[in-house]
Amino acid sequence: WIEEQTASGDLECRQRFLERMRLRMYDLSAFMKDIKMRFSKWYNRENDRKGTLWEERFKSLVIEGEEGALLKTAAYIELNPVRAGIVDDPATYRWCSYAEAVSGGKKALKGIRELISGRGNLLEPADVLGAYRLYFVQKSVDQSSRRPGFTQDQLEEEKKRQGRLSVPDALLARVRYFTDGAILGSREFVRDFLWSRRSEFPRGRKQAFRMRGADWEGLYSYRNLRV
After folding, report:
1. Over the range 157-191, which residues count as b (16 or more CB within 10 Å of their CB) and which as e?
2. How many CB atoms lie within 10 A of CB 192?
3. What is the side-by-side order of every strand in the sheet holding 184-185?
4. Can you give the three-state secondary structure of the chain, one letter per residue?
5. pLDDT in tens, the chain (227 residues)
6. What CA–CA distance (Å, rounded) separates 109 from 102?
7. Beta strand pairing call for 209-210 and 220-221
8. How far is CA 138 from the centre of its chain?
9. How far is CA 217 from CA 6, 90, 129, 213, in A?
10. Is 67 left (phi over 0), alpha (psi -120 to 50) or beta?
11. Across-strand partners of 220?
12. At CA 129, angle to CA 127 and CA 131, rounded to 5?
């Protein structure tokens, strides 16, 4: 099209085209329209069907970053798979920010830390995730009883654990320690293993790191994965 327009004497068509494309780069609605259209075409082709795939149009809204509006919205989103009956706990739903943070996603953890920054200077990842978990569990209890969610008894148990995942719950989540930890066990086991094979590991790296993000009951790893 640009070549045809240029050949016909429109020498500014390329610049106009680039400007139009640059505007689309920052247009969320245009992005969602394109990705939904492309996905629908692929899905229809793979499943031999026709017609629209999405029940409703894409929606967006402007959210105030202060006074808890953003935090409430994030908690609502985390609970979507629970309300839909897909999972019983967001920690086991791989497509939500909380599960990503539990599994060691630094960007997800950073986002959650910023969300609850007004609720105290929480430095440890486990404290950050615990405070966030307590918040959305409380919101789940407060919602309509006709929808799936957490119960008051579950909330009380969460308060006792300060929102930290128990070992069984953490195992259901996608935890990086079990793929990236390299060595898992008690502190003594990790240290003894490193010492017995000290020539195979970097010099000076003889430390065991406590696993975070849950009550791991004394488990340590070779790598300090932060979550």
Report:
1. ebeeeebbbeeebbeebbbbbeeebebbbeeeebb
2. 13
3. 184-185, 220-221, 209-210
4. CHHHHHHCCCCCHHHHHHHHHHHHHCCHHHHHHHHHHHHHHHHHHHCCCCCCCCCCCCCCCCCCCCCCHHHHHHHHHHCHHHHCCCCCCHHHCCCCHHHHHHCCCHHHHHHHHHHCHHHCCCCCHHHHHHHHHHHHHHHHHHCCCCCCCCCHHHHHHHHHCCCCECHHHHHHCCCCHHHHCCCEECHHHHHHHHHHCHHHCCCCCCCCEECCCECCCCCEECCCCCC
5. 888 888 888 888 888 888 888 888 888 888 888 899 999 999 999 999 998 888 877 777 777 776 577 888 888 889 999 988 898 899 888 888 998 888 778 899 889 988 887 655 556 778 888 999 999 999 888 876 667 788 889 899 889 988 888 766 766 665 556 666 677 788 888 888 878 877 777 666 667 877 766 666 677 887 776 54
6. 8
7. antiparallel
8. 19
9. 70, 22, 18, 12
10. left
11. 185, 210
12. 65
Retrieve residue 94's tokens.
């791989």
Nearest Cα residue to 115 out of 136, 143, 100: 136
CA–CA gap between residue 108 and residue 94 (Å, rounded): 12
- Joined together, the tokens standing for residue 85 give 């009956």
Phi, psi of 103 (to 5 degrees): -80, 0
Supply 126's token pair: 């486990």
